[in-house]
Write a structure and sequence with these properties.
Oligomer: single chain
Strand content: 15-25%
Order of helices and strands: EEEEEEEHEHHHHHHHHH
CATH architecture of the largest domain: Sandwich
Number of helices: 10
Largest sheet: 8 strands, antiparallel
Number of domains: 2
Structural class: alpha+beta
Distance between the termini: 24 Å
Shape: globular
CATH class of the largest domain: Mainly Beta
Length: 281
């Protein structure tokens, strides 16, 4: 995929939003999650949306998908076909504050709380597409972009969401929170045996706990977490070789392979997109 068919936008003055446009893509992603509240839309072609917390289904042009934070999912083109799409990531604490100000809902845990939603509504798709076009427009001021983002979310997108909460998981929340804190405190990857000792339950129970709540095995969860951390470091211009080492990857090649399998783009290309955006804006 060339740079022209895969574009990113963000701005340090609006650090709570990142958006992406991909055109005629054949790239397939492994199951992954984001620490953000994400909104996607299909522009052309067809894709297969999959998540352990949603019925797997085919989606097509004009479909909008909301993906809550930390929720496992994948969205890939049908075999031997291409598709074009948009994807917006909103920082979770910013969304939490936004919801509390507007719809009196509150969420923001590192453990999935909401179900994904698939929306078939031309008006919502049109407004979301217009918002993305404005964000990518270098002629628009940052104030115009911020205002349109808030208006579109408040008036169009968020009111359309049903906000279906997952089943109560209080029994596992405390243990998961403890294990997540341990994972965040360590620079290296934590083995299944170590997690078992920290959690006080068997290795098999650890696997079930992660798969039930995140849809990912403990190791896949850690890889996904490291890639999300790497995205932020790449935006800041940190050297790729240092990121790979600091985040516990075997080497730079290992980091490259994992990053591309979960994001659809190489670390170098990802970093270059944001370098250009910061210069242009």
């Amino acid at each position: 995929m060339t740079h022209l068919s895969n574009q990113f936008w963000t701005d340090p003055r609006m650090p709570y939003v990142e958006t992406r446009r991909a055109c005629m893509s054949r790239i397939c992603y492994k199951a992954h999650s984001h620490p953000t509240f994400s909104i996607g839309a299909v522009d052309s072609g067809k894709s297969y949306f999959s998540s352990y917390l949603h019925t797997n289904m085919e989606i097509s042009a004009g479909t909008v998908v909301s993906i809550p934070a930390y929720l496992e999912h994948s969205c890939n083109p049908l075999p031997n076909q291409t598709w074009s799409y948009q994807m917006m990531h909103l920082e979770l604490n910013w969304v939490k504050q936004f919801f509390e100000e507007t719809v009196a809902e509150s969420f923001g845990s590192q453990i999935p709380e909401l179900k994904p939603e698939i929306i078939h509504h031309p008006k919502i798709y049109q407004h979301f597409s217009h918002l993305n076009t404005m964000l990518f427009d270098s002629e628009r001021t940052i104030l115009e972009k911020e205002q349109l983002l808030i208006e579109t979310l408040n008036q169009i997108i968020f009111p359309s969401l049903q906000l279906k909460y997952l089943n109560d998981k209080k029994n596992s929340t405390n243990l998961l929170s403890k294990l997540l804190e341990i994972l965040l405190q360590h620079d290296d990857f934590i083995s299944l045996e170590q997690l078992s000792r920290y959690g006080g339950i068997s290795r098999y129970a650890i696997i079930r706990l992660f798969k039930k709540n995140f849809g990912l095995t403990p190791h896949a969860f850690q890889l996904n977490m490291r890639v999300n951390q790497a995205r932020e470091l790449l935006k800041k211009g940190k050297a790729i070789i240092h990121i790979a080492y600091d985040l516990g990857f075997v080497d730079q090649r290992h980091f490259y392979r994992v990053f591309k399998s979960l994001t659809g783009i190489s670390p170098k290309d990802y970093q270059q997109h944001f370098s250009r955006n910061f210069i242009q804006e």
